[in-house]
Structure formats: C-alpha cells, structure tokens
Amino acid sequence: MKSGCVSREVRNQGAISRHVGIFKNSPLQKNGIRKSKTSRWRAAALILLNLLMIAHIIQWRIMGKTISPIEPSETMHTLQRGAVNAGFIFFALAILATLIFGRFVCGWGCHILALQDFCGWMLKKIGLTPKPFRSRLLVYVPLIGALYMFVWPTAYRFFANPDHGPLIPKFTNHLVTTNFWETFPSVAVAIPFLFVCGFMTVYFLGQKGFCTYACPYGGFFGLADKFSPGKIRVTDACNQCGHCTATCTSNVLVHAEVKQYGMVVDPGCMKCMDCVSVCPNDALYFGFGKPTLLVPKSNAIKKSYSITWPEEIVGVIVFLGSFLAVRGVYVLVPFLMALGCATITTFLTLKTWRLLKAKELSFYRFDLKSSGKIRKAGWGFVAFAVAWIGLTVHSGWVRYHEYLGDRAFQKIQIPDELALAQTNPTRWLSPIDRESILEGKKHLQAAAKFGLFANSEALSKLAWFEYLSGDAEQSVALLSQAAARQGGQGKALSLYYRGTILNRLGRYEQARASLDEALAERADLILARQEKGESLWQLSRKEEAISVWSDAVQRNPRLVLASNQLAGAERSLGRFEEAIAHERQADQFTPDNPLYHRMIGLRLQNLGMKELAEKHFQRATELDPEHQARP
Question: What is the CATH number of the domain that holds 569?
Fold first, then answer.
C-alpha cells in the first residue's frame, strides 16, 4: 500500500515537471525532456575508439607490423582458412558479452555507429531531426547478410567441393600482420563508403538506419540479444510519459515494451542508456532477469510502419536488385557499402512512388507535395531520386556485362602454361575456348566502354582474351593499365603475365623490369622468378639466370620447368653432372600429360636448349600419337 502511494506520488511529480518544464537537478531540453547524461560518456567512449583506431594505423606505418585488424569481417578468414586473427577474437568475445549483457557493443564500441551519431548530431544542429523509416521485412537484411558472410562460404565449401577438407580448418596464428590494409578498400572507396553508410543512411532512414537495415554484424548481435538476461527494465514508478521512446535513436518503442513486458525486448536496443538517463521518474534501469525468448508474446505490441504490405514486397525486390547491381561493380563497391546503397535506393524508390500517388507529402520540414501539386522541394527530391536510381541501373548494366565476361573467362580450358609457351596459342584452343573468348571479349569490352570507372580485374581478363586471340601487343597494353590500378597480389599477377608475354615477344629487358616489379609486390611469386631467369638467359646473363632458377627450385622443388631450364643451362655450359641431377629432379615430378610435355619442349626450344626440348617432344608423341608433338 505504501509503495503504491509512493508510485502515485512519483508519477504526479513527473506529470507536474512536464507541464512546468522543471525537474530537480535535471536541465531540460526545449521539448521538455531532460538531457541524457550517459550520452556524453558514450560520445567520449566512441571518440576514444576512433583515436585508438588511428593510433593502430600510425603504429603500423611506423613499425611495419602490428596486430591484425580488429574488425569482425576478419572472422571470415578464420572460418574459411583457420587464420586466427584479432578480428575473430574480438567478434567472438563481443558475441559472448552480448549473450550476457545484451547488445551494448554496438552502442558503445562501433565506429560506424559513431559516424551515424555524429551525422545525426550535425543534422539536428541545422534543425533536421532524422526520422526512422520502419519496415517489416527489411529488418531481416542484417541477419541474412551475416549468414551470407560467415555461414554460406563454409557451407558451400563443405557441400559443393568434394575436396573440402575438414569443416573446421586447422588453426594458424595470424594475430600479427605486416599488411594491415590488405583487406580494406582504398581511401578513394572508403570516403564514399563512410558518406553513404554514415550521412545518407541517417538522413533517409533515421539515426540508426545502417544498423537497422544493413549491418550484418548487428544481425548476429541482435540474435544473441534475444538470449541475453541483461535488459533495460522498469519499476512501478513508470507513468508512460514517453520520454524514453522520444529519446531512443534505435527505433525502439521503449515505453510500450516496458509496459507490456516489463523490459525492452526489441533486439535493436543497443543499450545506449539514454532512455534510462532521461526518465523523469528514474523508473528505468539495466538489470538481469528473463531473456527475450522466455517472455510470452501473446499480446504483441502493434507497431506502425512507414509502408504498406504491397510496398514492402516491392521494396524487397528493389533492395535485392539494387544490391546485386552495385555489389562489386568496377571491383570498387564492397559488401557493406552495397547494402547501404541498396537501402537508400529502396527508400528513394518507395518515396518517389508515394510522391506521385499522394496528394500531400512532406519530408523533414519540406513540403514535397501539397494539394496534389509537386512543390520545388518535391521536384528536387525527384531529380535526386532519378539520378540515384539511374546510376544504380547503369551500375547494374555494367555489372551484368562484367558477370557474363567473368563466366566466359571461367570456361577457358587451355592451361596457362601451354598458352604462354609461344606467342600465338590459337592452335591449342578448343571450340569451347574460341566461343568463350568471343563471348568474354564482347561483354568486357562493353563494360569497359560504357563504364564510369575502369575495372582492373576485368582489364586483366580482357588482356587474357586478347592474348588468346593472338593480339599479344594489346594484351601487354591492357595488363599495364590493370597493374597501374591494382595493388598487392592483383598488381603482382598482372605484372607477371605482362613480363611473360613480353618474353614471348622477344622484349627481354622490358620483361625483366616487369617481373622485377612483380617480385617487389610479392617476393613469393615463384613463377615470376622462373620467368625472370628466362629473360636473363636471353640477355646472355647466363650465370644470373642460373642463380634465379636455382632460387626458384629451392623455394619449390616441384617446379618442373625451372628444373628443366637449369638442366639445359648447365648442359650448355658443359656442367653435365649438375645437368643430370636437375634433369632427374624434373623427371621425378613431371606428369605424364602430352600437353605438359609439349609446353616444356616449346619453352626449352625458345631458350635454344634443343636437345632437351626434343626429349619432351618425343615423350608427348608417345603419350598422344594422334597429334604432332612439335609446333
């Protein structure tokens, strides 16, 4: 009885405070809601997080090596290759913590959320308060994205590949790295990525728009939150003033949920604690009890949504189409950015449709349409929407041609080694190869001609099509363009193939320079060492060539061609014992494949090692008498 009186007294005090605009020791905002004290602590935590990230990068740049990126996406390397890194450890600990305390890691330890909060704060400074876009179906995108990122590759490897190996790969230590930025996009991509996933998602979808409709990591955190006993809970002092819901930036109906369930059950709650801080009666608190899964949902809260069911269906179709259109286009748009772009495209499509149908429509404080007439702001909105959607459609068209060009590339059957054995490999092409080359060139040339940016990977594939077609010069030019736009392994491979083709063209000095550049990018690219030895041999720098070939064979004793080249080189210099030893080593690992023997014969013949070349031509004829062994 006494506690009930106290509750009524507190409720009455809260009601009076709202009308008078005063609450003891609690400064109020213009809307009568007191300011959150925890927001400052959370802002400090997020600022510190970003400073630590900057310090991590600086330390890597100074010392040359550092702890591997503390990024959840790095977990993919652990699941697929067993490479245990800092990102995997962080993600595992974060999910474990969420299972106990709820989804607080998102609210207090995410740099993307910090960016969204900053963008929301800037918008409010100019008088624009981000309004949440509420969808029934798109909220499942984060979980689907998480399953696609982390579960699907492992399942596909296990069921689709007969030589998949164990489901759980052997773990290796990758906690320290010398190439911190290897898995991250370039700065030229990172800036628009942050703009899209930060400002634009906040402006169109609400302050936690990216978290709600795009973040795959949040998909797992939201699922783990359902099992967590840690929740925002309520006492009898609550009088349903709604200050908590008005303050929440995660689109959670706090006042309704605590009334219905005695706690916040929405997995979108990121435990920012703003709702607890602004409660005029101090009725909310963080505590432990039943998890969401054990709470009966017989009388679920009715929520209002921004779109109708037919619009939901259209939205899903638009989202999927726009995601496929932009993901990986030009090898620039990463997975997370594609999700962010797709959510914006979906919103703009549905809002534009509403604008054309409705008699009255507003967005923020702007009247887009009134009395059935589209206003200036409305036409501006339509122009932006048309430009954005048009760019998405164009990206989809380019992506379509890139996809078909890649499919044709995958159908090529001729082994690289045989194709590169001589300048014009057309005689070795099968009917499938010839058809795939024509198809691939058509699509990749269309993508290159009408695309807004150059796709470095597509350029490399187009270069290979040109080489197989007999145009080695054009292939060299395209590989030069591709290498100029690539970094790391991609650049190294483009330079390797460029150097190899230059060797076939007899431009040995240029070939050696290209191969040296490839090795500077990747010192472990043994095939580049093998090819560099050929350049040096043709330049009459024979001892250097032998040294390079020897180094390649020491790194990989199964390198058959390099062992044969060493055997031929030693024989030509009169060092027969060494030649015999290398020849025996080569024979030990040479497969009984007629095409392989022809390839070796051609390469040795190019170097003037005719006696050893003849041996392989004869062996090729023995294995396949129906074809002439020599070119």
Answer: 1.25.40
Rounded to 5 degrees, what are φ and ψ at 263? -165, 170
Would residue 195 be called left, alpha or beta, if left means φ above 0 and alpha means ψ between -120 and 50 degrees?
A: alpha
Which of 228, 246, 263 finishes a domain?
228
287 domain residue, yes or no: no
Question: Is the pTM here over 0.85, yes or no?
Answer: yes
Shared-domain flag, residues 441 and 527: yes
Looking at 228, 258, 293, the residue that finishes a domain is: 228
Closest by alpha carbon to 318, among 470, 503, 568, 135? 135
Q: What SS3 class is residue 483?
A: helix
Contact assessment for residue 488 and residue 179, using Cβ atoms and an 8 Å cutoff: yes
Torsional sign, CA 45, 46, 49, 50: negative
Residue 318 CA to residue 311 CA, distance in Å, equals 10
Instruction: Give residue-wise pLDDT tens across range 32-63.
Output: 888 999 999 999 999 999 999 999 999 999 99
**What are the pLDDT digits (tens) for 324-357?**
999 999 999 999 999 999 999 999 999 999 999 9
Residue 34 pairs with which residues in a beta bridge? 28
**Same domain flag for 137 and 172:** yes
**Residue 139 DSSP code:** G
Buried b (16+ CB within 10 A) or exposed e, 60-94: beeeeebbbbbbbbbbbbbbeeebbbbbbbbbeeb
Exposure b/e, 223-232, CB count within 10 A at least 16 = b = bbbbebebbb
